[in-house]
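retry 2 of 3: previous attempt timed out while embedding dinuclear copper ion. Reduced batch size to 1 and resubmitted. Inputs unchanged:
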Amino acid sequence: KYEKIWLTFGTSALVIFLVILGISAVHQGHSPAASGIETINPEHVRDDARFKEPGLYESDTDEYDYELYFVASAFQYEPREVEIPKGSRVRIHVTTPDVIHGFEIAQTNVNMMVEPGLISKYTANFNKEGEFLIICNEYCGVGHTDMTSLIKVT
Ligand code: CUA
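retry 2 succeeded.
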């Protein structure tokens, strides 16, 4: 009889824990400046409207000036080059259809891991004019070191 009580107690505690976990996950999703993660089917990256023609798009929100979409794959980033107006606040979204890649913008604090099945996000302010190289910092195969793209802030 006591076992049943403990079992009920344990189950309710688990349910409460999961609910709290769910609530905090939702809150994090709405937090604007934080880096975030969203799931995506890696086999259908190209079917997703956002990653069909990756690049820079004006943001629908007031929080960012632009949304910047990148597809990282063995062994390149798309787009190969992107121009960003100086002073822009940009929400960056990166995903991959194949293996784990890195996404580091040299000379900035943007540095993310890109995993199949996930969209990695980061908010960055581009206040400095110049050319910034995007590099892959996770070993992803023979073409790893050739994997680059360029951001031009003008
Ligand atoms: Cu992609 Cu290393």
